[in-house]
Design goal:
alpha/beta, TIM Barrel, two-stranded antiparallel ribbon, binds beta-D-fucopyranose
């Protein structure tokens, strides 16, 4: 295993295609929005599809040496097996622009949205989906592999499985445990197949080494009180199922969770690094024995919300949790990249405080010898925040949605100064 992955520390911000590009007519989210299942429609979003050059000039100006972004599969394969060469050229241009500015692209294959034709077959419940994903992954490396060294296959597979297939507030709006567990299993299978074919393709066609990982959402989980049965046990369960199970299974080549899953995967160790998306802390209590209760909001004790630091989405900002999770995930002996960390707020001083506290947590983890190799703030700019629409503002850059004008916030300069101070090594 290559523990080094990069000589330099990767500093940047993240985006995802559907949240910033605009006019992604051919994916499942577009249809969901058109059916008014969420309050806002993404429409033009930030028009990043046309304004990426301007946005990357800002990235450069802010001194980032890397940038996380995603491909929009529905643009590349708008109909089954019909690939759009113009869309491939577009992403070639996007990635070449980053490279020519000296900004290392960090590319996600699939950030939540699916082509509509694939969603119509059943999406992450369709038994053949991993073959389609493998094919997409292979094509992506064939076409773009010379421009990209760092890849993420999937973004937050557990979040997707829970919100789309158990809670049902994201497309396709399914609400059963069976749908959720199938979605988890098929994403694992898809990741493993993609990992294998991506390395093979990069090696055969581009004669280069690439690094492939996954962006895993993790949250700090603390019990509401010290009651063992009512608080500590449910917290332990949720922590292991939500935070660890996906990564553990890929690392060991076997999908294993007591009472729920056992299946051998075709490959062990299909991760070159672990991407962690960290936002917040939960306080957990017992709410019932069904998976819906154990994973849903019923087991959160909301009275704890009163004390902690709250963001505009009522998430609790808790920087110590980032340190704790880095420490814990170090047990997999893989490099760690913070692939997302950010705050929704209209108070930019609160954003500065959030960034400072979380960067301090990363610095402490590095000083303590944990192998963290990159940090991406979520997000470069305000954008379409899924079921929450355009209201939450996560951006280092403010977007005026009427004029689409970009305005750099003070917090962006704060982050930029921090990078300069710490340096890029
Ligand atoms: C993460 C998602 C990202 C964005 C942030 C706020 O869960 O990966 O797309 O929505 O949350």
């Amino acid at each position: 295993m290559d523990k080094k992955i990069s000589d330099k520390f990767l500093w940047g911000a993240a985006t995802s295609s559907h949240q910033v590009e605009g006019q992604n007519y051919f994916n499942d989210w577009w249809s969901w929005e058109q059916a008014l299942k969420v309050p806002d429609q993404s429409l033009l979003a930030c028009d990043h599809y046309n304004r990426f050059r301007e946005d990357f000039r800002i990235v450069k100006q802010l001194g980032h040496n890397s940038h996380r972004l995603s491909l929009e599969w529905s643009r590349l394969e708008p109909k089954e097996n019909k690939w759009d060469e113009n869309a491939w050229s577009h992403y070639r241009e996007v990635l070449s622009t980053l490279n020519s500015l000296g900004i290392e692209p960090f590319l996600t294959l699939n950030h939540f949205t699916l082509p509509k034709w694939l969603a119509d077959k059943g999406g992450w419940n369709y038994l053949q989906i991993s073959n389609y994903f493998e094919n997409f992954a292979k094509k992506a490396v064939e076409k773009l592999g010379n421009l990209v060294t760092y890849w993420l296959t999937l973004n937050e597979p557990m979040v997707l499985a829970i919100l789309s297939y158990l809670v049902g507030i994201w497309p396709p709006g399914k609400t059963s445990v069976a749908n959720m567990t199938k979605a988890i299993e098929l994403q694992m299978e898809a990741h493993v197949k993609a990992y294998r074919v991506m390395h093979k393709t990069a090696n055969n066609i581009h004669h280069k080494k690439i690094y492939v990982g996954i962006a895993k959402n993790v949250a700090k989980m603390d019990p509401c009180t010290d009651g063992f049965i009512k608080n500590i046990l449910p917290t332990f369960w949720r922590h292991h199922f939500y935070n660890h199970f996906f990564i553990w299974s890929l690392k060991h080549g076997c999908i294993f969770f007591p009472g729920l899953f056992f299946k051998i995967l075709p490959l062990r160790g299909s991760l070159d690094f672990i991407g962690l998306n960290y936002y917040r802390r939960f306080h957990i209590k017992y709410a019932g024995l069904t998976l819906k209760k154990m994973l849903g909001d019923d087991c959160l004790c909301l009275e704890h919300r009163i004390g902690g630091k709250r963001t505009d989405l009522w998430w609790e900002s808790y920087a110590q949790g980032l340190y704790d999770l880095i420490k814990e995930f170090s047990r997999y002996h893989l490099p760690i990249i913070i692939t997302e960390n950010g705050i929704a707020t209209d108070d930019d001083n609160q954003r500065i405080e959030f960034i400072k506290e979380h960067l301090d947590a990363v610095a402490k983890a590095r000083a303590d010898g944990f192998l963290v190799k990159g940090y991406f703030y979520w997000s470069l700019m305000d954008n379409f925040e899924w079921a929450d629409g355009f209201q939450p503002h996560f951006g280092l850059v403010k977007i005026d949605y009427a004029s689409l004008q970009r305005m750099i916030r003070q917090s962006a300069y704060f982050y930029s100064d921090y990078i300069k101070k710490i340096g890029l090594d």
